[in-house]
């Protein structure tokens, strides 16, 4: 028994998405990209992304998930997987390069300067808001969800301790230490 | 040497799937002397393969074959190709479940009698009542080591931080029934250790304290010498003879070769998307609408529970991730009470997320300071999941895509779900109550989250007294084909407000008795 597309209210969008994690709006970045220390990362040039593109993506990453307590290298590290993917996939490389150009163009039109030179966060956010449903923004944001928050190096800054089995779980490490109730 | 059965051995019971239904059924049948072949689509992971890492395990064990979300639910936007969050692997979704083993309530089996006619819903009473299932609930609780039950004799698990903060708030707003019947060993039981509060229950319990068929029912079944487990074996179709009796299944083996296993009886336990999909894919000239589908109800009445989630940010740290993922469960709202403005009931279940999942699920697609200011308070969060009654609606269900095929060459399943007006009312009430519970202990901010992809999938091959109303009878036996059984949650007639696993296990124990008896009497 089959049902036609119209009967199920199936959206075209469903077809355009891949399966799995992409379906969550999340890209799982390879762990290897996150194992480098932030300082080493800061010193290491990207292979595919131009310095100007990388600089814009880094700024954009901070504007998408702004954490004042996180140093720049974490954001650089968070976009590193995009450099790796751009190196393997020409479509990604042009999506990113074209996306950055378009973002700079709209920044120049509105504020007379490229995106990274727009001083106020709220102005940059307004520029991003205008493109948030587009593929460029979605690509960058989807990568950041794991590029940033799946980076074990920054978990301590959020009070998350992660893997516990190798330490005997949390049974003797504060699983019931709440003292303010 | 592991037992092996010949492909042409037509005395075996073939079980499709090895989760709560299939894994339990295999062991129960084997203990009664019945020979079984278990075909499992996924790989055979071991606890050594489990990592305390949310995304790593998501990628390793989730059922990620393409599915399409359709209908009016939120998932068409948030999770267009991941309507359900279930496992592809030996042990099925018992690897991923959080371990909450709630019984259904007596009225849950009398869905239609309790609520009468509800516009837009396709309610029906189960052909069995609570009393029929009660002894099997007891046996399931004993088997699974459910903490705090008479059946297991195990004490409750200790209260972790997340439990304490939710329970304290619940008591302040007057809730009384704060429970946690968990199928997680509170001390060593059945050859498995007591829980050490790892906090990664849903990534596969690495210390095997949480019940999963992977390391309980399945090895016990294999130890009898009467069961053969074939992992990475995806069943494509069920075959039948001229009389309409099923005779075997066609599957793809780990090497990509198509095989045919003969069978005396076939039991389908592939969870509520794959099970009806297999029946639909088995359409033949004798059964043009799919097997066991004379009622037209195969793939219909898809139930997921009415769900919602929220995080609360407290003034001081909670560290919700330390310890069992499922914390306090508030049961006071589970009984029906129409004065609240909706039918049915719900549970408020404290369910923790790690930072990586919180970032992904708190506000899918979200960004900016609104999101990051909350995430910076991650260690001050508590998190709840609303698990409410979901009413059967005929148009909610699983159909086959007309053209698109998956890696096995099978039509991609379209999983369609549209809320009933009742669902929205339950969700609103549940989220409002969680807000009160959280604010009662001083929470400063509560953020409502959209439902996660569905982990509770039920109802697509439902039980019915009459053949015209459903797919299987009170034993899970197809109305149309006597040697074909449904052995998973797809046989549920109603969802209740209780997590489904305990009821799936109880039904599997009961079904095994019936099948073994009927085989002995030569009725099968």
Automatic annotation (TrEMBL), chain A:
Signal peptide: none annotated. InterPro entries: Gluconate_2DH_su3, TAT_signal, TAT_signal_bac_arc. Pfam families: Gluconate_2-dh3 (PF13618), TAT_signal (PF10518). This is Conserved hypothetical secreted protein.
From TrEMBL, chain B:
It comes from the Bacteria. InterPro entries: FAD/NAD-bd_sf (IPR036188), GMC_OxRdtase_N (IPR000172), GMC_OxRtase_C (IPR007867). The keyword Flavoprotein applies. Residues 394-508 form the Glucose-methanol-choline oxidoreductase C-terminal domain. Keywords: FAD, Flavoprotein, Oxidoreductase. Its EC number is 1.1.99.3. This is Gluconate 2-dehydrogenase (Acceptor). The lineage of its organism: Bacteria, Pseudomonadati, Pseudomonadota, Betaproteobacteria, Neisseriales.
């Amino acid at each position: 028994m089959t049902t036609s597309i119209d009967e199920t209210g199936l959206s075209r969008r469903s077809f355009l998405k891949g399966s799995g994690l992409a379906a969550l709006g999340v890209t799982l970045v390879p762990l290897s990209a996150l194992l480098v220390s932030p300082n080493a990362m800061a010193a290491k040039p990207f292979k595919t992304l131009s310095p100007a593109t990388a600089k814009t993506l880094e700024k954009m990453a901070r504007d998408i998930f702004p954490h004042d307590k996180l140093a720049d290298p974490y954001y650089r590290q968070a976009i590193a997987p995009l450099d790796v993917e751009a190196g393997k996939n020409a479509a990604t490389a042009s999506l990113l390069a074209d996306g950055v150009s378009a973002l700079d163009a709209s920044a120049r039109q509105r504020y007379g300067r490229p995106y990274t030179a727009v001083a106020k966060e709220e102005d940059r956010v307004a520029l991003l808001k205008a493109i948030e449903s587009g593929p460029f923004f979605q690509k960058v944001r989807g990568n950041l969800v794991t590029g940033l928050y799946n980076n074990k190096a920054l978990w301590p800054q959020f009070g998350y301790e992660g893997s516990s089995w190798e330490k005997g779980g949390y049974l003797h490490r504060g699983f019931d230490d709440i003292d303010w109730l | 040497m592991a037992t092996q059965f010949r492909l042409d051995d037509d005395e075996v019971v073939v079980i499709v799937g090895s989760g709560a239904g299939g894994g339990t059924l295999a062991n129960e049948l084997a203990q009664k002397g019945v020979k079984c072949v278990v075909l499992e689509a996924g790989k055979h992971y071991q606890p050594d393969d489990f990592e305390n890492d949310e995304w790593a395990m998501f990628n390793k064990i989730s059922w990620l074959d393409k599915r399409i979300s359709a209908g009016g639910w939120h998932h068409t936007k948030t999770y267009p190709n991941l309507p359900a969050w279930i496992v592809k692997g030996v042990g099925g979704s018992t690897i991923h479940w959080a371990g909450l083993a709630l019984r259904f309530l007596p009225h849950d089996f009398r869905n239609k009698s309790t609520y009468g006619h509800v516009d837009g819903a396709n309610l029906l009473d189960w052909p069995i009542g609570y009393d029929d299932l009660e002894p099997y609930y007891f046996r399931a609780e004993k088997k699974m080591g459910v903490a705090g039950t008479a059946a297991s004799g195990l004490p409750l698990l200790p209260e972790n931080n997340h439990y304490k903060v939710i329970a304290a708030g619940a008591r302040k707003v007057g809730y009384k029934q704060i429970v946690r019947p968990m199928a997680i060993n509170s001390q060593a039981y059945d050859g498995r250790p007591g829980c050490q509060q790892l906090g990664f229950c849903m990534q596969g319990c690495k210390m095997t304290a949480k019940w999963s068929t992977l390391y309980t029912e399945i090895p016990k079944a294999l130890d009898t010498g009467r069961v053969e487990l074939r992992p990475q074996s995806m069943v494509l179709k069920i075959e039948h003879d001229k009389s309409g009796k099923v005779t075997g299944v066609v599957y793809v083996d780990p090497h990509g070769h198509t095989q045919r296993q003969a069978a005396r009886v076939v039991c389908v336990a592939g969870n509520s998307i794959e099970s009806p999909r297999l029946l639909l894919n088995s359409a033949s000239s004798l059964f043009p609408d799919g097997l066991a589908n004379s009622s037209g109800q195969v793939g219909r009445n898809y139930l997921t529970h009415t769900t919602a989630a929220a995080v609360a940010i407290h003034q001081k740290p909670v560290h919700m991730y330390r310890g069992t993922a499922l914390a306090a469960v508030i049961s006071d709202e589970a009984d029906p009470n129409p004065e609240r403005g909706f039918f049915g009931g719900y549970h408020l279940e404290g369910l923790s997320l790690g930072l990586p999942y919180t970032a992904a699920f708190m506000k899918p697609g979200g960004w900016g300071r609104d999101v990051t200011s909350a995430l910076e308070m991650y260690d001050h969060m508590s998190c709840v999941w609303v698990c409410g009654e979901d009413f059967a609606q005929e148009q909610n269900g699983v159909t086959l895509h007309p053209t698109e095929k998956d890696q096995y060459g099978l039509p991609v399943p379209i999983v369609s779900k549209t809320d009933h007006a009742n669902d929205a009312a339950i969700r609103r009430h549940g989220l409002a109550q969680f807000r009160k519970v959280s604010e009662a202990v001083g929470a400063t901010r509560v953020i409502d989250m959209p439902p996660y992809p569905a982990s509770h999938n039920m109802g697509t091959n439902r039980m019915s007294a009459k053949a015209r109303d459903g797919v299987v009878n009170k034993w899970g036996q197809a109305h149309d084909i006597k040697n074909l059984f449904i052995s998973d949650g797809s046989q549920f007639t109603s969802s209740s407000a209780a997590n489904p696993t305990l009821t799936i296990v109880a039904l599997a124990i009961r079904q095994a008795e019936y099948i073994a008896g009927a085989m002995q009497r030569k009725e099968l």
